[in-house]
Write a sequence for this structure.
């Protein structure tokens, strides 16, 4: 049976169980093991094992029946015990209810008795207190304080309570009958008040927070409580300002005191607010006054810097102090404190800012002109100057002799950067120090000063000088410096525009002053553009004049009618070479001097004038067959120069001119065919005829009939 039990190991598997049984039987394995396979023996073993399993099943069944019987018996016994416990619990619950009712009854009786005792005891306590106060009052009436409470320093708290009550009672007594005793009580009242304040001061010096809290609680009912707070505030500041940075010292002091006032006083927010008010009205105000008054009249620049720095640091300090409990409206409270300190300085701020900026800007400009040994010319004023200006703008003619500036543009990026930096500082101070309602107006007034000194006194003046320095179109070897003026003025205006957007716009963007600023900026731009356009136009005239001078001096009539046509090199003339070199140099100067669409606009205008000049120049000569070839070579080089313009219109004009020059060399019979070509078919017939008339053989070959 033990063997059978071993075969029932968990987990049970019937197939595996049969295999293990067969394996244990000698000769019962699949291969027979050490012995040969014996099926009869295996069958016998199976039959014996089945019998064993039947006996085992019967045994287990009997045991199960025994356990089931025992379980039924114990279940009945447990049910009887539960019923007994339920009956006991019900009895206990009934007893508990009875006890609870009895306790409630007793409690009601006790409360009623307590109310009766309190009703009797409260008048008795009041009577005892009144009797005690009358006893102390009699001592004051007799003039001799015999009670220990008034003579023992250790009972000062009890004495303070008594004297405070006697003081209130004495105020209700008629003065004529109790004047003497009222005076004695008042004297003792003030004496105890002074002693308590001294005790509080001593405890504060010793750092005894508990004692300070006790004394402050007693003094809370005395008139001298405010004086106690003042003493506390004064002592807090002793030794707190040992460094040079009063703002940092104030922040550290308030952080330290804020932790302490909550442990000492019953209304810490009131004490904290009074401490900060004391610091602002005394320490900070004295510091600000000292710093500003010493430079207000002697060094305006330093005064404005100090004012900006002090106001910024004061507002930053106030921002830190908002983390403390100062009452319900601490922001308004701190704003009033700041206003009380700076109001006198802020009222006159903008006028001092404008006066300083005006003086400083004028000095920067004058220092620059002095460094150039230049005596600044007075700009146009009066009716004659205005008339000249209008006449020049309309006619584009120079009035009076040109001025030799020796290549000086009278524009300086260093001066501009200094002016913009001063103005930027002014905008920053204006933003910080101006009242929000006055900020747009103040910022606009600073912008007007920038326009006056940068745009009018510097850029516009340089443009005036540059215009005056432009030579006449017929001048020889003229130096054209106005393009340098254009380049620098363009760079400067970009800096001016950047400051306008970065520093002025945020200050005025949401106010009506924005329209005024934009209008003023537009007006300034238009005035400068008029002068720039005038100067560029006159400069282009000078360029064309210089080209005309080169052609007039270098081009010979024999260039296009050579004496020996059989011994001529087919190449461009010397005049053409010099003109092309000059044009390339001027195109490069224009590209360096301008940017964006302005480059194409100016080069287009220069290219059109260049084409007009060459076109008119070629019509001044007559051309032999070989001379026509030379003219075509010249125009081909002019066309190469036109490519440098990178303007389609200019290149198209020279392509057409090149096609026109073909009329000078084409065989007479082919003239009509050439004139009908793609590039010439849309041109005026008179223009084509004029070019054909330039041929030497025009009359001999009767070429005019081809245009009849």
């Amino acid at each position: 049976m033990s063997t059978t039990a071993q075969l029932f190991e968990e987990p049970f598997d019937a197939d595996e169980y049969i295999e293990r049984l067969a394996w244990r039987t000698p000769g019962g394995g699949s291969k027979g093991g050490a012995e040969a396979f014996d099926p009869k023996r295996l069958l016998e073993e199976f039959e014996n094992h089945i019998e064993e399993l039947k006996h085992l099943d019967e045994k287990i069944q009997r045991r199960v029946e025994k356990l089931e019987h025992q379980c039924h018996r114990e279940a009945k016994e447990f049910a009887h015990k539960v019923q007994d416990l339920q009956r006991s619990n019900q009895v206990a619950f009934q007893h508990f209810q009875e006890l609870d009712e009895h306790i409630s009854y007793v409690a009601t009786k006790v409360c009623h008795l307590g109310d009766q005792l309190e009703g009797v005891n409260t008048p008795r306590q009041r009577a005892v207190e009144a009797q005690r106060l009358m006893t102390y009052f009699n001592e004051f009436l007799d003039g001799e304080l015999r009670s220990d409470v008034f003579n023992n320093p250790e009972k000062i708290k009890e004495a303070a309570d008594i004297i405070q009550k006697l003081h209130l009672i004495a105020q209700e007594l008629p003065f004529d009958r109790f004047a003497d005793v009222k005076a004695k009580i008042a004297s003792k009242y003030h004496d105890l008040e002074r002693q308590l304040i001294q005790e509080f001061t001593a405890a504060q010096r010793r750092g005894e927070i508990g004692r300070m809290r006790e004394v402050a609680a007693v003094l809370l009912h005395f008139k001298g409580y405010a004086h106690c707070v003042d003493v506390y505030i004064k002592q807090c500041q002793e030794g707190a300002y040992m460094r040079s940075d009063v703002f940092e010292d104030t922040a550290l002091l308030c952080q330290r005191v804020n932790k302490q006032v909550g442990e000492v006083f019953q209304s810490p927010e009131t004490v904290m607010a009074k401490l900060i008010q004391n610091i602002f009205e005394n320490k900070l105000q004295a510091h600000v006054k000292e710093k500003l008054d010493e430079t207000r009249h002697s060094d305006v620049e330093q005064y404005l810097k100090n004012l900006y720095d002090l106001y910024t640091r004061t507002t930053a300090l106030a921002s830190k102090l908002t983390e403390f409990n100062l009452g319900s409206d601490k922001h308004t409270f701190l704003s009033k404190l700041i206003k009380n300190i700076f109001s006198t300085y802020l009222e006159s701020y903008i006028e001092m800012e404008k006066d300083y900026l005006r003086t400083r800007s004028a000095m920067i400009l004058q220092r620059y002109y002095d460094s150039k040994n230049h005596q600044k010319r007075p700009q146009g004023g009066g009716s004659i100057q205005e008339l000249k200006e209008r006449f020049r703008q309309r006619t584009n003619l120079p009035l009076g002799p040109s001025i030799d500036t020796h290549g000086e543009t009278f524009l300086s990026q260093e001066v501009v950067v200094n002016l913009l930096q001063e103005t930027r500082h002014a905008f920053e101070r204006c933003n910080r120090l101006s009242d929000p309602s006055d900020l747009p107006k103040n910022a606009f007034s600073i912008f007007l000063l920038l326009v006056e000194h940068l745009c009018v006194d510097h850029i516009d003046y340089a443009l005036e000088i540059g215009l005056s320095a432009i030579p006449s179109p017929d001048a020889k070897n003229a130096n054209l410096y106005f393009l340098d003026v254009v380049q620098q003025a363009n760079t400067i205006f970009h800096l001016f525009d950047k400051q306008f957007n970065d520093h002025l716009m945020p200050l005025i963007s949401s106010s009506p002053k924005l329209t005024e600023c934009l209008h003023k900026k537009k007006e300034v731009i238009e005035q400068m553009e008029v002068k720039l356009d005038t100067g560029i136009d006159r400069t282009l005239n000078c360029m064309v004049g210089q080209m005309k001078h080169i052609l007039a001096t270098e081009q010979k009539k024999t260039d296009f009618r050579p004496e020996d046509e059989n011994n001529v090199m087919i190449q461009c003339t010397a005049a053409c070479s010099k003109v092309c070199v000059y044009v390339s140099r001027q195109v490069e100067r224009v590209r360096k001097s301008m940017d964006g669409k302005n480059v194409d606009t100016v080069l287009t205008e220069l290219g059109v004038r260049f084409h007009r000049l060459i076109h008119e120049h070629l019509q001044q000569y007559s051309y032999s067959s070989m001379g026509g070839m030379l003219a075509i070579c010249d125009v081909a080089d002019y066309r190469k120069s036109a490519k440098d313009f990178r303007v389609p219109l200019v290149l198209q004009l020279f392509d057409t001119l090149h096609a026109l020059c073909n009329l000078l060399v084409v065989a007479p019979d082919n003239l009509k065919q050439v004139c009908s070509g793609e590039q010439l078919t849309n041109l005026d017939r008179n223009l084509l005829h004029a070019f054909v008339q330039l041929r030497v053989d025009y009359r001999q070959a009767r070429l005019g009939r081809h245009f009849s």
About this structure: The mean pLDDT is 82. The two ends are 146 Å apart (CA to CA). Residues 6 and 17 are 10 Å apart (CA to CA). The chain has 24 helices and no strands.
